[in-house]
């Protein structure tokens, strides 16, 4: 098999190498990241050995909140969309308990099951639907349409569903502000509704289908490209406004104002490390002598996806973004991401609440709720799951004896990442998290960390090294 060669890689090689070798970001950039987030007393420092690192500027006690990190880009797993209806921007659950349950049962009735789309590499938990009890359409419909209210569901209010500005039936929101923010930052180019800014909605549909059929990691990657294009256009419009004397010449050659593209690319440039096909872990069922073939197939798959995306949202001024090398680095950024998007389900809370009621009330409530719980089966508790990139958290270095960890508290009900102190951390100490299961033995830890491109030399590894 011939490896894919991307014409854009050759045509824009100079610009691509500048985009991929972005100079270290300035301190102001990280200061802005810190001030925009819920965190007190953190500083990103650049040092020679590990590159970036996050340091405490205050003392933290055990269990203290260190950081709530807002994602730069994220997307719900395609297969998870049947289970959970969440805001496409902030990822909190929307609608109502009734809608969440009714919609899921309705989609399952149509034969759209989350099981079929399970992505083994994405860490999804697949559950069997064989033991579920099917409910009739007439039982599900009133739930979906809000005509049937479940007992005590008023204790679990969710924000009402807001539709996409572009009119697609794919993206829904918790508020107008989330709908607008998503539209401005990502969705206007990727919407398949009538109001989309994509020049080719057919191609967009094909791109999404390809991602759903192969690997949904392409969806957040497309969001990175669309958001960079949208940022570039905004910067360019602002520049035109700042220079009112100059005529806006419509440029027949679509010439790129490269410094603006570099500026638009800046938030991404802190995230990528390695190309997807170079860093993806070899699946267990692939023999190590077939490794080169496997990596080439992955590269070809990325190329296929990129060509579909290019047909859908290509912008000549941002042409270098459609290079396979760039795409590989963007996907690699998500592949090497050590923190998933997870939001706990209010449907789980609801059924646990019913289960905890005093027996007479419970008995009464279960007259209505039991059949739905039976129909949901074990899936009643499925959380919202996806892929995301968290810019501050990604600056935290790994340690096999970390002093902090990602942990969602009861109140953390959206797509933000929460980092808590595992033990007291004193001022000027580096904040570390574990990228892997730190309970594994030395050799296995080092093997997993090799995918991230480094050998761990944390105090524990130094001690345990043979
Ligand atoms: Zn929202
Ligand atoms: Zn839309
Ligand atoms: Zn270590």
From TrEMBL:
PANTHER family registered for this protein in UniProt: HISTONE-LYSINE N-METHYLTRANSFERASE ATXR2 (PTHR47436), SET DOMAIN-CONTAINING PROTEIN (PTHR47436:SF1)
Keyword Metal-binding attributed: yes
Coiled-coil stretches noted in the UniProt entry, renumbered to this chain: none
A single MF term (Gene Ontology): zinc ion binding
Domain SET, chain residue ranges per copy: 40-436
PROSITE patterns listed in its UniProt record: SET
InterPro entries: ATXR2-like, SET_dom, SET_dom_sf, Znf_MYND
CDD domains hit by this protein: SET_SMYD
Protein name: SET domain-containing protein
Keywords for this protein: Metal-binding, Zinc, Zinc-finger
